[in-house]
Design brief:
The complex is a heterodimer of chains A (about 375) and B (about 110). With about 375 residues, chain A is α/β, with parallel strands linked by helices. Chain A folds into two domains: about 150 residues, Peroxisomal Thiolase, Chain A, domain 1 (3-Layer(aba) Sandwich); about 150 residues, Peroxisomal Thiolase, Chain A, domain 1. In chain A, helix 9 links the parallel strand 8 and strand 9. In chain A, helix 1 packs across helix 4, helix 5 crosses helix 11 and helix 8 crosses helix 9. Chain A is globular and about 65 Å long. The two termini of chain A are about 25 Å apart. Chain B is mostly helical and about 110 residues long. Chain B has one domain: Non-ribosomal Peptide Synthetase Peptidyl Carrier Protein, Chain A. Chain B has five helices and no strands. Chain B is globular, with a radius of gyration of 15 Å. The chains are: A alpha/beta (about 375), B mainly alpha (about 110).
Chain lengths: ~375, ~110
């Protein structure tokens, strides 16, 4: 991400002859058999596979004996098994199949990724999935954070996964008329829409003393979480609702707007989102916005939907840890309606102490996380 | 191609077209706004048409005429400023001779 490498490419994992938009941020060359036993694969939709691979990376270094199993939980963004849903529909309706594979239901269920993570790591505390469209992972992490902070859990595995790039899903997005024909250019005057992505982002959230006592590597401090609902339009974003969520997150963290150095924006690259998000930031941060950096990782990752909030929080965490601002790539032309420093095209060093990560979902569901650098 | 372009430039006001009137009826039905208010100069914003309603209307127009209305480049989410622009865009699609699905060679030098 610091190198500004774009993951958006021509779709390679499926035929595109029936698609109008043929680019996405796909994971290409992922071999499930390199990660899972053959007997286990019939139970795992691609979305579960990606969640598990990310969870393994996050849990590396957490010893089984470190914690009581019922004090560890899992909260992931809800994500249906799109690959299974599509193949089952096709075989039933198009190929007139007489029966479907027995694992069809558990492979599709939106809580599947959370269940598989709990099973693999023996996490026997609360385990569930949150559904809030493109804010699902952010809501998941926020709830997990509050549960750890409240003393309900010593450790939570949280984040989201998404693997929805299928013919049906892409056609549905095409119908919304918000897809870019090529790349994603958030905040650029010539931005042409969003690009669908897939992936998984998983974090381990842990009580501070507990993490310190077991000698864990602490990447950042999760400091605040705020939510709101626009209660207005089904798809159009609302600056007041977004601003309310940002204010709630800062209040939860006990921080003033002037203490924020970096915003990892929702930044979808649609005309409407980006100008509305900038309006919300201007409302909350006022003149301080001129001194902040605001970039969109979707320019590189695409819009990873149920995983987006987790991947973007990770971008903010890494920005704090490395003292580097990740760029908004594909930026070509300033937009008077997006008068911000979007870290155009190249990462650069920055003295960062506090960052926020925004997720503003369809249905008017807003969620914002605040992270602080660990000295 | 050049003939086609000059023809659209010299075309009369779009709403003289029967197909345009049908489009307006569809927009009216999808948005709940009376046809009389849907003048060429009326702006989508001033009419209070949300992006969702506009998308629904475009979808209904596609169904009516059995066409696909391509997204206007760089204007996703706010493709048209006025009703006149919307109608003109759809008319260019309707008047376009049938083309293969891929038009990537159109912009290449001869």
């Amino acid at each position: 991400m610091i190198a500004g490498i774009c993951g958006i490419r021509p779709i390679a994992n499926m035929p595109t002859d029936r698609l109008g938009v043929t680019t996405a941020a796909e994971i290409v060359g992922f071999d499930p058999t390199a990660h899972f036993e053959p007997r286990r694969l019939p139970m795992l939709d691609r979305v579960c596979q990606l969640a598990l691979v990310a969870a393994r990376q996050a849990m590396a270094g957490v010893e089984a004996a470190d914690l009581a199993p019922n004090r560890r939980g899992v909260v992931l963004g809800a994500a249906i098994g799109q690959e299974t849903f599509d193949s089952a529909s096709r075989s039933l309706y198009a190929d007139n199949a007489k029966r479907l594979p027995p694992m069809t239901v558990p492979r599709i269920m939106p809580s599947g990724p959370a269940s598989h993570v709990s099973m693999e790591f023996g996490l026997r505390g609360p385990c569930f999935a949150t559904a809030s469209a493109c804010a699902s992972a952010t809501h998941a992490i926020g709830l997990a954070f509050h549960m750890v902070r409240a003393g309900m859990l010593d450790l939570a595995v949280s984040g989201g996964s998404d693997a929805s790039i299928s013919l049906g899903f892409m056609k549905a997005w095409e119908a919304l008329r918000v897809l870019s024909p090529d790349v994603c250019r958030p905040f650029s005057r010539d931005r042409a829409g969003l690009v669908i992505g897939e992936g998984a982002g998983v974090l381990v959230l842990e009580d501070w003393e507990h993490a310190r006592d077991r000698g864990a590597t602490i990447h950042a401090e999760l400091a605040g979480f705020g939510m709101s609902a626009d209660a207005g339009d089904l798809t159009a974003p609302d600056a007041a609702g977004a601003a309310q969520a940002i204010r709630a997150a800062l209040a939860d963290a006990g921080l003033a707007p002037e203490q924020v150095d970096y915003v990892n924006a929702h930044g979808t690259g649609t005309r409407l989102n980006d100008r509305t998000e900038v309006a919300a930031l201007a409302d909350v941060f006022g003149p301080h916005l001129k001194r902040m950096a605001v970039s969109s990782s979707k320019s590189m990752l695409g819009h990873c939907l149920n995983a987006g909030g987790a991947l973007e929080l990770l971008a903010a965490v890494l920005a704090l840890r490395e003292g580097m601002l990740p760029p908004t790539i594909g930026f070509r032309e300033a937009d008077p309606e997006c008068d911000i420093d979007c870290v155009p095209n190249r990462a650069r060093p920055g003295a960062l102490n506090v960052a926020i990560s925004n997720s503003f979902a369809f249905g008017g569901l807003n969620a914002v996380l605040v992270v602080k650098r660990v000295p | 191609m050049s003939v086609y372009l000059s023809a659209t430039k010299e075309a009369p006001a779009p709403f003289d077209d029967q197909r345009a009137m049908r489009m307006l009826e569809i927009v009216a039905k999808e948005t709940g706004i009376g046809v009389a208010a849907l003048t060429p100069e009326a702006t989508i914003e001033n009419l209070g048409i949300t992006s969702l309603d506009l998308t629904q209307a475009l979808f209904a127009i596609e169904s009516e005429f059995d066409i696909e209305i391509p997204v206007v480049p760089h204007r996703t989410g706010a493709e048209f400023t006025t009703i006149g622009e919307l109608v003109a865009h759809v008319l260019t699609v309707l008047d376009k001779p049938a083309t293969p699905a891929t038009v990537a060679t159109v912009d290449q030098p001869a």
